[in-house]
Amino acid sequence: MIATEQKQDGTAARVTGPPWPDPAGLRRRMGAIVRDPLFAFLIVGGGFFAAYHAIEASRKEPVHYSREIQAAQVEEFEMLAGRKASEADKARMRDNFIADELLFREAIARGMHLTDSQTRKHLTDKVRYLIAGAPPEPTEEQLVDYYSDNLKRYQAEPKISFSQVFYSAAPADPAAVLAALNAGQRVGGDDFWLGRDYPQYGESMVRGIFGQPFVERLRKAPDGAWFGPVRSPRGWHFVRKDRSFAPSLMPYAQIRDQVRQDFMMAATNSVVDREVAKLKEKFDVRIDR
């Protein structure tokens, strides 16, 4: 602050206040500050800090509930509800949209797209579709050629006809039961929900009912003789194999829909495989041996 003293006659006597800085000294002090390593550190650090906040701000794109989204939600609501959307309806749709968007972003922030198996599968399936799209409808000639080139795929599985006597618990004298059965005697056993006789059952069906060990014993057994007991998850079984049926080729006319589905899946996989080969050049792949 500058103060002026006045004489009694009203004229100014002198001016008091802080002295004006010396320009040369000021330049020397500024030069010393600039040359100080701490000054350079502060400048660089400040630059990094500003850049970090700029990047973070760009990443945190705001949740935008646009007019287009509002109109689409209102249109869908009114089509499904059969009435005009009230203000309360619109507020609820807005709040639900914002909540879903925030929860989605939180899921991404937590890396759930990398760790949750169902989410990963949904994303990979989506990318497969984006890469391959919907394959064109095959011609009849293409389907017949595909069927002819893949006949082994369209073999019906082996089938077996057999009978069984079931015990829910291990029988007291299994040898006596087996001897009675092979002698042609009628043996009661316990009730089984599918009964005693199984004509031309496919191996996959037998496996689903009795288990794989049961199927393996049945394959090796001679026709017409009782054997057992064979234990399954359901109990104990004395079994007689009546006849085996070798795999047979399923007629094209009966499985045309399956052939079409297989053909289109093969076409899709071919496109995806080519794209995956390109992605291997984009991303590093490491396989432990």
From TrEMBL:
What top-level class of enzyme does the UniProt entry assign? isomerase
Region called Disordered, residue ranges: 1-23
Name the reaction it catalyses.
[protein]-peptidylproline (omega=180) = [protein]-peptidylproline (omega=0)
> Is Transmembrane found in the keyword set?
yes
Cite the GO molecular-function annotations of the record: peptidyl-prolyl cis-trans isomerase activity
Q: By its UniProt entry, which Pfam families does this protein fall under? A: Rotamase_2
Q: Which domain of life is it from?
A: Bacteria
Pinpoint the PpiC domain residues: 135-243
EC number(s) recorded for this UniProt protein:
5.2.1.8
From the record, give the transmembrane residue ranges.
37-55
Q: Which family does it belong to?
A: Belongs to the PpiC/parvulin rotamase family.
Name of the molecule in the record: peptidylprolyl isomerase
Report the source organism: Edaphosphingomonas fennica
Q: What is the lineage of its organism?
A: Bacteria, Pseudomonadati, Pseudomonadota, Alphaproteobacteria, Sphingomonadales
